[in-house]
Amino acid sequence: MTSSLPARSLAVAEALAAAGVSGEIVVLPDSARTAAEAAAALGCEVGAIANSLVFSCDGEPLLVMTSGSHRVDTAYLAARLGADAIDRASAAQVREATGQAIGGVAPTGHPAPLRTVVDTALQRYEVLWAAAGHPHTVVPMTYEELLRVTAGTPSAVVATD
Asked: Is 15 buried (19+), middle (13-18) or exposed (0-12) by CB count in 10 A?
């Protein structure tokens, strides 16, 4: 199975295995660049998709693992983190920070650890699906595994949660 994975997904598979995540990477026939595409392909609720979004937080990369059912409120999150500003990273900044392209950014397998926030809305789901380093690859995991693999800080990312 792993020999048929894209190179970026192989690095993710190694990082997941090292963190004790047992879920296997699934290669989808079509792109899953958006939460809606991934949910449709997997037959799950869009909220169970753990989107990997990269931001610039006071000039440093910040990975936010958020539920596919809502958008990150950057002003709200900045206030929660005590940051001056959180802005969406450019495609080049995403690739530099993660080694992966937008639409396939995994929660792990990056060149260096990233400061990470994990949306508490994700804990509502028994199984989460996250990108696995490529727009056609995803991996199942639990909320606890996502926290462990990212060393992330649990936080609401919108005021309504």
From this structure: middle
* Whole-number pLDDT of residue 36: 86
The reported pTM is 0.92
Looking at residue 121, the DSSP 8-state letter turns out to be: G
Q: Which pair of tokens denotes residue 16? A: 């997941």
Contact 86, 34 (CB under 8 A): no
Q: What residue spans of 3-150 are helical by DSSP H?
A: 7-18, 35-42, 74-81, 91-98, 143-150
> What is the number of helices (H) and of strands (E) in the chain?
5, 8
Residue-wise pLDDT tens digits, 20-33: 998 999 998 887 77
